[in-house]
Amino acid sequence: xxxxxxxxxxxxxxxxxxxxxxxxxxxxxxxxxxxxxxxxxxxxxxxxxxxxxxxxxxxxxxxxxxxxxxxxxxxxxxxxxxxxxxxxxxxxxxxxxxxxxxxxxxxxxxxxxxxxxxxxxxxxxxxxxxxxxxxxxxxxxxxxxxxxxxxxxxxxxxxxxxxxxxxxxxxxxxxxxxxxxxxxxxxxxxxxxxxxxxxxxxxxxxxxxxxxxxxxxxxxxxxxxxxxxxxxxxxxxxxxxxxxxxxxxxxxxxxxxxxxxxxxxxxxxxxxxxxxxxxxxxxxxxxxxxxxxxxxxxxxxxxxxxxxxxxxxxxxxxxxxxxxxxxxxxxxxxxxxxxxxxxxxxxxxxxxxxxxxxxxxxxxxxxxxxxxxxxxxxxxxxxxxxxxxxxxxxxxxxxxxxxxxxxxxxxxxxxxxxxxxxxxxxxxxxxxxxxxxxxxxxxxxxxxxxxxxxxxxxxxxxxxxxxxxxxxxxxxxxxxxxxxxxxxxxxxxxxxxxxxxxxxxxxxxxxxxxxxxxxxxxxxxxxxxxxxxxxxxxxxxxxxxxxxxxxxxxxxxxxxxxxxxxxxxxxxxxxxxxxxxxxxxxxxxxxxxxxx
Length: 596
Description:
Elements: E1 4-6, E2 13-16, H1 17-23, E3 28-37, E4 40-54, E5 57-66, E6 75-77, H2 79-82, E7 87-92, E8 95-100, E9 116-121, E10 125-127, E11 131-138, E12 146-149, E13 152-156, E14 159-163, E15 166-169, E16 175-180, E17 186-188, E18 193-199, H3 224-227, H4 237-250, E19 259-266, E20 270-278, E21 284-293, H5 303-317, H6 319-322, E22 326-331, H7 347-354, E23 360-365, H8 372-379, E24 391-397, H9 402-409, H10 415-423, H11 430-438, E25 439-442, E26 445-450, E27 453-455, H12 461-472, H13 478-503, E28 515-519, E29 536-545, E30 550-555, E31 567-571, E32 575-577, H14 584-595
Parallel strand pairs: 1-6, 2-5, 3-24, 19-22, 22-23
Antiparallel strand pairs: 2-6, 3-4, 4-5, 7-8, 9-11, 9-18, 10-17, 11-16, 12-15, 12-18, 13-14, 14-16, 19-20, 20-21, 25-26, 26-27, 28-29, 28-32, 29-30, 30-31
């Protein structure tokens, strides 16, 4: 059993070299360059074929063997497994589930088995032969309380033992009993998988939860314990103390009143980009440069596609500087400004723009004469380090911990500052007591109390948060707003009714013997203008009425246009009634005859 991530954006499945060796599978030679490891790349020279089992799905896929230094987790499961025939991935109930479709053809989503929780041995334990022992457990899957372990029989060679069915509480010192019925001792090493359990859920209706965050507070100085998770164990204490001194000295040196600009340009032979920072005095200072040569496939792209590729690749390169901030992209391609508002995009452009959805940016056009600095990078790109025989694949691998993104997500809302302040003191009124009953502080972060424990990302946050905001903040002139809403709704309904009536109007009907005109079909391939030609030709007479609003029309007697009289079938939408125009003199003569 391996720990890893499921990454729907990764085009490959990657496996650490140490884990690949421990599996004992044969290695195959390959030559693929992986781009995306912290903005860098690595050349993979080996691959293996593994039978991968993730959640309820199982398939045999190809895995690339990468060095241990570039990947902290054991395995990253990408598109070869997710897009494998017969595997279905669904997002349901706030969880991502994977299962084989042929095994569960009639299974509803809410009937899927719950996700298992892996339990690990907290310390090395040896159970003597024919004895009952206990193993201390822990899990790394967040705040988990009670879990259910089903009956499990382990038939290891000469080490038969049984784990009985039980319910344990992981919020306390959890242990699981193990019955060793063999004549040999059973040993569980520290960090070894003991069992997989299901989360116990109470038989009550789910409660409504809302998101909360805290205002920005001063962070205490870092200590040596904070560096243990991000530094190598081989670093001596003197070097670690020097690093700690630098971090505490320069941790608040980031500029807060600057903005970032990304200048991009592309040509047939290369693409380039420059990350610039606008100082407080308006001066531009470069932060990082980027350029690369285009591949043989990219050289045949349209100029619009190359400009889009330059923007996307530059944002990937500067990702660590641009993520989480608002910035501008300056380009000399005016068509890029309307890309995000177009209804129809070619698939390649659409896939590229999907990779930029995590950024908050706007596009600004600037004439090419003012973009000479980045134009030089695209026309003199950095030559590629890989040969033509080396394939390339994209992989985005970012190591993010709960301490990083949870705290970053809770430093925005001004209202949540009141919740944090209320939790920091003793309750003084009914409002404070309600906050203390619903929320809790842990590691200077606000958590919501739920039946499953403390949660920092509660479900259903949008509806609950918006409902509370609307109920507490009423508009000053809500009657005027309501009347404006009613007016706009009525206008929209009127427009939709006209469109509906026009599309669902009753078909025109014609009787036998009625004279009609037929819509002319214009051919535009003869090189002559058809602007002055009449839209309808005729008149013709209806000789028969068919089904499905079809009519048989023929030439009037004495008006044949060729030797063979015309006879054809036309739909009702291509016909219109022929109204005979009567002159004024004829009308006066008819009137006199009627009086006589």
